Amino acid sequence: MRILSVSGQANTNCGQAPSNSRRSSTGSTMASADRVATFSADDIPEDHRDEFIRDFYGRIQMRLDITPRADVPLKFSARTLLLPEMSLTKGSVSPMIWERNSELMADGNDDIILSWNKGGYRLTMPGRGDFSTDPGTAAIFPMDRRYSVVSEDSQWTMALQFKRSLLVPLVKNLDDVRPDTLGRTLPAHRLLFDYLWSLLHIEEPETLAPLASRHITDLLAVSFGGMEAHTHPPGVRAARLAAIKQHIARNLTDPGLNAGQISRKFGISERYVRQLFAGEGTSFSDYVNGERLAYVHSCLTDRRQLLRRIADIAFEVGFNEPSTFYRQFRLRYGMTPTEVRALTEKGDSG
Q1: How would you write the chain as a 3-class SS string?
Q2: The domain 251-350 is classified under which CATH number: 1.20.140.10, 1.10.10.60, 3.40.50.2300, 3.40.50.150?
Q3: pTM score
């Protein structure tokens, strides 16, 4: 599986590499390592969709009874990353009822599902009561309990299913945590959501999957109240660094982008910001400078931007001194910006 990166460089690339995945007869797509899977109901013959989603995807794969609403066209698509002792899924589905009943509980599965949904959830858990979550916030579904969940607006939904044993040593009274206890207002909850979301949109070497699982476990423990965020466990540090790099990638043209801005936005000290980058063998300023150089390089190799002046592109991301920019660019790429542009023009004419 290709996941886990804390780099914001995705925004500097003008193109996207084609997928090396293969499509199966069931309509799902598996990556070459068979650890990334995508599924779409659109790939299933219409007269078999309801049955397939209920029996295969619901009862067999998810171990849940799924009841789509009859008055709404059936929509179901999902992409799943398989990580050590957990799986992470992002999808879009039509309104449904999801139920974990006594029959399905006979499988002995005691995993925990943490799920976010655009429209929120309404859930009933016998013995515990009725709960609801605000739009975009998480709900906790333990697989060793009966529950029924109603989703009305699932244009996007994200779910993390993980082994209970990961949190038992870290979180006291895990079974007493309310299903609606995780929101999006606390920093730990935002870090967890943003880190998971980034994993679903970034491809990296499969060898980093165990590290991703450890980071997620740390973030879960902090979010469930088992660890304090100020102790800076590795997962929290990794998630903060990922969020900071995403912010940098989105704000390369902001002249006010500096460690002070980052510290104010994320509620951490400038010293801690610099320590995060020092842990990767670089500095905050060197990282930002490298991302800006990468942005310029991507523009110079984009044939759609051949008419833009090199100086204008460099100035856009804060290179105000031409001689400094040219020297840094050549040091990084072994060519001058003019030479890179010339190669792009040559390729266009050839």
Answers
A1: CCCCCCCCHHHHCCCCCCCCCEECCCCEEECCCCCEEEEEHHHCCHHHHHHHHHHHHHHHHHCCEEEECCCCCCCEEEEEEEECCEEEEEEEECCEEEEECHHHHCCCCCCEEEEEECCCEEEEECCCEEEECCCCCEEEEECCCCEEEEECCEEEEEEEEECHHHCCCCCCCHHHCCCCCCCCCCHHHHHHHHHHHHHCCCCCCHHHHHHHHHHHHHHHHHHCCCCCHHHCCHHHHHHHHHHHHHHHHHCCCCCCCCHHHHHHHHCCCHHHHHHHHHCCCCCHHHHHHHHHHHHHHHHHCCHHHCCCCHHHHHHHCCCCCHHHHHHHHHHHHCCCHHHHHHHHHHHHHC
A2: 1.10.10.60
A3: 0.61
